[in-house]
Amino acid sequence: MTTRWNDIEPIYWQLKSRTIAMILDGTLAEGDALPSVRAVASNFQLNPITVSKSYQALVDDGLVEKRRGLGMFVKDGARAQLVASERDHFLRTEWPAMLSRIEQLGLDVNELLKPKHRRGSQHE
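Structure (tokenized):
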């Protein structure tokens, strides 16, 4: 398995973000075990310390719990916690920037919300 990592963020942070995305989209459900550190390190050709650091960051955020001798598991309530924090971040940071750009370009928000725009940039 090959993956491209960007040069902007540390790899452990990118791995954490990917794990968060998997929790948000349901690929990893509450109570599910995360892949072992060794498996992830092998699959992505990473140092196991990098994977461990990523997993520890998830533990520190209260999304994952360590079960001695069993591994790491997604905590109950992790998805709801993530949805709430991601919504808050979107509304505080991303949406104002998008709204500003929409206004700069003279776009009509109601027009953007029409179904043809939700499917991508299809031209009629």
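The first helix runs from residue 11 to 24. The beta strands are 64-67, 71-74.
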